[in-house]
Amino acid sequence: MRRPRGKGAGRAHIVDIRSPRVGASPTAPIPFPVETAAMSSLAAPHRSVLANAVYGLLNPIPFGCFVAALIFDILYVRTAELLWDKGAAWLITFGLLFAVVPRLVNLAQVWITSRRTAVRSDRIDFWLNLFAIVTAIFNAFVHSRDAYAVVPAGAWLSACTVLLLSIAHVFVAVQHSASGDRP
């Protein structure tokens, strides 16, 4: 194998992978391109470890808040106790606040830094989460109404938000289990 030396050492080079043949010219190797570290612009971009950690830490929080808000909405429909309505409104607000950072990380990872390596389930997860957040924003406006005016729209919007997030989580889980990765 020939190794480059000197001025062109960082560039792609030709490697002779054959053994010497009878009658072959020693200066005519079989072309075999080799990528070096200097060609890293051609390599697939890697996702940031810090961004993955922040995403993994904060992504489950909105789902928990929205599921709890759905439970509180169901309890409010059944009991008409104002406590459940106000609790659901606060949970939706906190869920929306905690949903911002993971969605920004997901936006950067799926559509900007690794858009070539992002799989279909990552894009579906992004869009389903975005639609769930829009639904939760409408739900927050519905929950700003007074008392029983929240029923039934608040419960339905909470159910739609949880359903969209559940479908997104299922898509990601199926993709990770099919590829053998751990989410």
How would you sum up this structure, described in words?
With 183 residues, this protein is mostly helical. It is 62% helix and 2% strand. The protein contains five helices and two strands; from the N terminus they run ββααααα. It has helices at residues 49-58, 60-79, 82-113, 120-143, 153-179, and strands at residues 13-14, 33-34. The protein starts with 12 loop residues before the first strand and ends with a helix.
How many angstroms does the end-to-end distance come to?
Answer: 41 Å
SS strand fraction: under 5%
> What count of structural domains?
2
Chain-averaged pLDDT = 81
Q: Rough shape?
A: elongated
Which radius of gyration do the C-alpha atoms yield? 27 Å
* Tally of separate helices: 5
Taken in chain order, the helices and strands follow as EEHHHHH
* Main pleated sheet: 2 strands, antiparallel
Identify low-pLDDT runs. Answer: 32-44
Give me the secondary-structure category.
Answer: mainly alpha
- Helical fraction equals 55-70%
- Number of extended strands: 2
Question: If strands are numbered along the chain, what order do they take across the biggest sheet?
Answer: 1-2
